[in-house]
Request: fold
Amino acid sequence: DGGITQSPKYLFRKEGQNVTLSCEQNLNHDAMYWYRQDPGQGLRLIYYSQIVNDFQKGDIAEGYSVSREKKESFPLTVTSAQKNPTAFYLCASKPGVGGSEAFFGQGTRLTVV
Amino acid sequence: KQEVTQIPAALSVPEGENLVLNCSFTDSAIYNLQWFRQDPGKGLTSLLLIQSSQREQTSGRLNASLDKSSGRSTLYIAASQPGDSATYLCAVNTSGTYKYIFGTGTRLKVLA
Reply:
């Protein structure tokens, strides 16, 4: 089955630690995205990537880093510089620019303990 | 900068009622607009995708319209059911970018 897989589903981080969230897709999509969702709010764009080895900052990139070494993978690292990392993180992909449909993973809930 | 607004923020209706959710955006230069459903603690499920050249799309009891010139889209749900209870989000893909910008969503509760 084609789709987007995010792991883990739940993640706990101690203050001062870096953690990496995984996002893998087997849809052969060029573009991938990371969004953050806080309770009762919409989605805010963290980073996006149009092609392998290229990525762009979204609206709230501070404290986060990404890599795109493979077409199917777009991991997100939440660094210790992110002051309020507790949130629900969603990964998405779409075939490319233009009128194509975006597909989402099931999300990772990150909690700082 | 593209901004997307959804009204109302929350809605509670009795089962069987027809309802309309609204989405407005500030930059009409878009590739498409997509409506999603989100159940609590879950990811997003795509409901309808409307290309910039289209006026509406239908899927079952759902109908989405797009008026690009006025920066508005509506999602019409016919004969609502308790299973429709969820948060509904719209997102626009602005022309010339890969960015999808989301509204804050409408929380719908359909009462049995």
Q: What stands out?
A: Chain B touches chain A through 27 residues (CB under 8 Å). Chain B has a mean pLDDT of 94. The first strand of chain B starts at residue 4 and ends at 7.
